[in-house]
Design brief:
Distance between the termini: 18 Å
Strand content: 5-15%
Order of helices and strands: HEHEHEHHEHEHHEHE
Amino acid sequence: MNLDHATGSEALLDNVLAGLDRAAQRGEIIELFAHRPGTTVGWDDLEVVLAGAAQRNLRFFTYAELLDGPAEPGIALSFDDAAISAWYEGRELFARYGARATFFVTRYAEWTQEGRQMLRTLAADGHSVEPHGRHHLDAPQFVEEHGVRAFLRDEVLPSIDALVAEGYTPTTYAYPYGKRTSETDRAILAYLPRVRSLTYSFRAPLVSNPCPR
């Protein structure tokens, strides 16, 4: 479920809280994602979600931990792209509720040293860092124009390698815009054990895509 107000979702918090109820009742993991706390999702709304998870005894899982097949209800919270300072600003809020998130990062090679240090601090807090593409490219469109080998070479593997070089251990590739094909899945899964895509609906013209640049 998308937490961002930028999607134009109606009754967003009610839907999310209902999703937390279902996860608790069914023993499932609910996946929630956003981009820029304080901008695409308000801090107050984010706290409502974190408090709601705590009230329902939902454990926070990173995507790396999902590989172990957790047998208890929980929440997999993630933030995409490169809103480093906003993520860092949330450290105290995350700690207050025992929340651990996964940060899917893109254009990592362009980050400043300060930004990279902020990300290392977040990782030291118990959060996870995963790849979201070198240039945040639309996978199906790029593959149609250049082929899957070029997609791996130019977009996926550099994103993984940049994080490995910084000492991270990537487990999950998040598709920009959530767009994928079975061909790109097979290609990426030769290098990582998991991919994250999105299934969403929207009412034009409110939403053009769920992943703002």
